[in-house]
Each structure stands twice: as structure tokens, then as C-alpha cells.
TrEMBL record:
It comes from the Bacteria. Its cofactor is FAD. Residues 23-349 form the FAD/NAD(P)-binding domain. It comes from Brachybacterium conglomeratum. This is NAD(P)H-quinone dehydrogenase. Pfam families: Pyr_redox_2 (PF07992), Pyr_redox_dim (PF02852). PANTHER family: MERCURIC REDUCTASE, NAD(P)H DEHYDROGENASE (QUINONE). The lineage of its organism: Bacteria, Bacillati, Actinomycetota, Actinomycetes, Micrococcales. The keyword Protein transport does not apply. Keywords: FAD, Flavoprotein.
């Protein structure tokens, strides 16, 4: 394993010394692909991006951008549901508005979702063209270690010589043979945005990030929601305290969680769907969302011919500067199985191009990657987890502070959530953090900086924060370590 503190030099045997002489070909238009293309082009390389599922990839067109746009609408309804405590009343009858008193036009919501996704895709394409990237709409595959065959959308086939190739082909939703997607009643997460009416009863199969986010969002939108989880808790692998808060939030909002239950299949009925559990029990609903993870799009990519090693799961093997087993071929994003995060894909793509074009680069450091789950409330994490501390893998003190003592939280009617800090006992260096709160995805940044730059609890505690603000709790929890005198 490479030392994360040491920059890895480029391979001078692979690419010409002058970037102008380098031909870079990128297969895949998602964050890993388009960020890599922008990086390579701005360094002067002749860059071609081959996108067969649209510029922006799944992240922009069918996954991250659409889902977070939908969730933004759900957040508004969630705020309305809590407005009674804030003294907000209907102007006509004086009653407190609730989410149930409002109608959701799902067709209008999804029209907006698709429009924003298309606009983001167009913006990215414009940026690529402005940077000098040649964008080809079509399917790319390796034709050896330094050639890419492109089957264009126009039916033409081109072969491109390449000094460096980046594979950023992403992943597709996993499908059960016993629950084939039909795009109408049995859906994967890319198909939700074609719905014109709100599901009366949505059965969500899978309690990972995707399942939890859509269960939270559709309940806020007004659907009855049943979440089928094969685990004891939702969000397996996530901070246990955070999962507890979310389960409590689900219970208060009326999401039915069927824990320790595994789906055997799903079938359509005359006016709905039935999900069958392995126990034989059947759950009836109007729609089913199968959120069972992703499968890398690595078949028929010419990997075997080129000599690129692939794991049993189908993911491409890479090191921390995105190199595959073949010199000059790199990979980034969900097809590598490193982290299913758009931010990580983009970082992998940039690192790959810096390395390929002759720059020494710092490898991807997993402990410095922050991530968020866009439920209500949001959950954001970075660095070492409490589970690693409990198992003895890492020595750290765990500091935790609930938001119920935060004055801004009281003003906004926030009654759930916390901040958690993991600190090295001797040096007081910040090793990890968890934030559970509205906009936790924004609040995690100071802790990510602290982990990346090895700041101490004292430095966090001594940093000025706005009063009143939720960020005040980010510093306040660090003071627990300072006041304890290092004990």
C-alpha cells in the first residue's frame, strides 16, 4: 500500500514529456470521466470523451442530481409538517398547515427533476467543449492497451489511438430475476422520474443509502412507505447512533420498517404490486422500488483483451492513483468499487490525469473522504468510525453532543440530531466525525478539513463560530476534550 503522505510520480516511460503530444481517451461521461477530461484538456492534452449514456452520466441524468432535486421538494413538505410549533397558521381557517393538507403534483415535480438534470448535462457539455475536449456520443471499448473503438450514435465506427485511457463507465441498478423492472410498478431508482402520480403505497426493498433516502423522501411527499430491510437496522455500516436517530424519525413520520426481512421477488397485480419475502409473507402495495445496489458496467468493454484485471464482482482493480493492471490504462468511479460517490469518482479522474500527464500526485486517502445520506435528518460522516474504535482497530476518544442544547436548533424547531467527534487520546488530533442534522451535508466540511489537515480538538474549540448557529455545536463538542484536560 502506498504511503498516503508521499506523492506518487508519473511513469515517464508511458507518456511523452510534452502534454501537447498526449492523446487521452476517456470512456464514460460521468463525474469521473468529465472531470478527468477537463483536467487533461486544461493541461494541454488532446482529449476525447466518449459518452454512451449522456454527458454527466448516471450521476447527473438518473441518480444524484435527480434524486437530490426530488428530495429538495420533500424537504419543503417536511418543514411544513413541523410548522405548527413555529406558530404558523392557515390564513383562512387558522388551522396549522401540515404536509397532509398539501397536494403534491408528482408529474410537475418529475418534470422539473428531468429539466434540471438535462440542464446540468448541457452545462457540463458546454464546459467540455470550451476546454477543447472532443465529445463523442457513442459506446467505447478497448481494442488493446492503447486503442479505443467507438461505436457512434450515428452508426459510424472510429478507432482512436491513445497514450492514456481512462475507464469511467459507472454502474447500473442490480436486478433480481424474480423481480424484473418494468418501469411502471416494479422500478429501479432511475425509473422513478417517469411516474406521473404519487405512489399510494411504495414498498422500498433495500435499506442502504438509496433505499433510506427514497423512503424518507416519498413519505414526506405523502406516500405510505414500507421499507424492507434484511438487516437489524437501517443503513448497515453507518454510525449506529445515526441509524437510531433515522429509525426514530421514520417511526414518527409513519414509515413502516420491516427489519430482518429479505425480498424473494416481486410481481405485478391488476392495480399494484406484491413483494414476497423469503419467509413466504406477502406485502401488497401500489409500487415497488428495488434498491439493491449497483453492478459495474464492465462487460463487453474489452478488458480481457487489453489485459485489465477485474475482480470477481466485475469491478476494475485500481491502485490509489487510479492505475489498472495495464500501464497507461486508468479507471475511476463506480466501476472500480472504491466508493459509490460522485465526489470520489471526480477525484479519481483528476488524480488519474495528473499522474498520466507527468505530475507527481497524492493518492486517494479514504480517511479524508466525507459522505452524506440525504434523509430527514441528513447524516454526514468523515474519517474514522466509532465501530473501528469499538473493535480496537483505532484508539480514539468519542465525544458526542445532542442538538437539543443548541439555541439555533431550538429556534428552528429541530429536536433530533447530534454531532460526534473522534479524537486521538494523546495528540487530540481529529480522526473522524458524524453530523446528524438538517443540512448535515454542508456542516461536515469543517470536520473534513480538520481530518485532512490533522487539526486538534483545541483548534476546533478555539475557532470562532456565529451565534446562534448549528455550527456552534461543531466547536462546542470539541470543548469537551479541552475541558477534560486531555483525560
Amino acid at each position: 500500500m502506498d504511503d498516503p503522505s508521499t506523492a506518487i510520480p508519473a511513469d515517464p516511460r508511458r507518456v511523452p514529456r510534452c502534454a501537447d503530444d498526449v492523446q487521452v481517451v476517456i470512456i464514460g461521461g460521468g463525474p469521473g470521466g468529465y472531470e478527468a477530461a477537463l483536467t487533461a484538456a486544461r493541461q494541454g492534452a488532446r482529449t476525447t470523451l466518449v459518452a454512451d449514456r449522456g454527458v454527466g452520466g448516471a450521476a447527473v441524468l438518473t441518480d444524484v442530481v435527480p434524486s437530490k432535486t426530488l428530495i429538495a421538494t420533500a424537504e419543503v413538505l417536511d418543514l411544513v409538517a413541523g410548522s405548527r410549533e413555529l406558530g404558523i397558521r392557515d390564513a383562512d381557517d387558522g388551522a396549522a398547515p401540515t404536509a397532509e393538507t398539501l397536494d403534491v403534483d408528482l408529474d410537475a415535480v418529475n418534470t422539473r427533476v428531468r429539466r434540471l438534470a438535462d440542464a446540468q448535462s448541457a452545462d457540463i457539455r458546454q464546459s467540455l467543449v470550451a476546454a477543447g475536449v472532443e465529445v463523442l456520443d457513442g459506446r467505447g471499448r478497448l481494442d488493446g492497451p492503447d486503442r479505443v473503438e467507438v461505436s457512434g450514435a450515428d452508426g459510424e465506427t472510429r478507432v482512436l489511438e491513445a497514450d492514456a485511457v481512462l475507464l469511467a463507465v459507472g454502474a447500473r441498478p442490480r436486478e433480481l430475476e424474480t423481480a424484473p423492472f418494468d418501469g411502471e410498478r416494479i422500478l429501479n431508482w432511475t425509473q422513478l422520474y417517469s411516474l406521473q402520480e404519487l405512489p399510494e403505497h411504495l414498498i422500498v426493498v433495500g435499506s442502504g443509502v438509496t433505499g433510506a433516502e427514497f423512503a424518507s423522501a416519498y413519505r414526506a411527499l405523502g406516500s405510505e412507505v414500507t421499507l424492507v430491510s434484511s438487516r437489524e437496522k437501517v443503513l448497515p455500516g453507518t454510525d449506529a447512533d445515526a441509524a437510531d436517530v433515522l429509525e426514530d424519525a421514520f417511526a414518527r413520520r409513519g414509515v413502516t420498517v420491516r427489519s430482518r426481512s429479505r425480498a424473494a421477488g416481486a410481481r405485478r397485480t391488476a392495480d399494484g404490486v406484491v413483494v414476497t419475502l423469503t419467509s413466504g409473507e406477502e406485502i401488497e402495495g401500489s409500487h415497488a422500488l428495488m434498491a439493491l445496489g449497483g453492478v459495474p458496467w464492465t462487460s463487453d468493454l474489452g478488458l480481457f483483451t487489453a489485459g485489465v484485471r477485474v475482480r470477481e464482482s466485475g469491478h476494475i482493480e485500481t491502485d490509489r492513483v487510479s492505475r489498472t493492471s495495464v500501464r497507461g490504462i486508468y479507471a475511476a468511479g463506480d466501476c472500480t468499487g472504491v466508493y459509490p460517490l460522485a465526489s470520489v469518482a471526480a477525484m479519481q479522474g483528476r488524480i488519474a490525469m495528473h499522474h498520466a500527464l507527468g505530475e507527481a500526485v497524492s493518492p486517494l486517502i479514504a480517511a479524508q473522504v466525507s459522505s452524506a445520506i440525504f434523509t430527514s435528518p441528513e447524516i454526514a460522516v468523515v474519517g474514522v468510525s466509532e465501530q473501528e474504535v469499538a473493535s480496537g482497530q483505532v484508539r480514539a476518544d468519542v465525544l458526542m453532543l445532542g442538538l437539543e442544547t443548541n439555541p439555533r436548533a431550538k429556534m428552528q424547531g429541530i429536536d433530533e440530531g447530534f454531532v460526534k467527534l473522534l479524537v486521538r487520546p494523546d495528540s487530540h488530533t481529529v480522526l473522524g466525525a458524524v453530523v446528524v442534522a438538517p443540512r448535515a451535508s454542508e456542516l461536515i466540511l469543517p470536520y473534513t478539513l480538520a481530518v485532512a489537515h490533522r487539526l486538534t480538538a483545541e483548534q476546533l474549540a478555539g475557532t470562532s463560530t456565529v451565534y446562534p448557529s448549528l455550527t456552534g455545536s461543531l466547536a462546542e463538542v470539541a470543548r469537551q476534550k479541552v475541558l477534560a484536560g486531555g483525560a
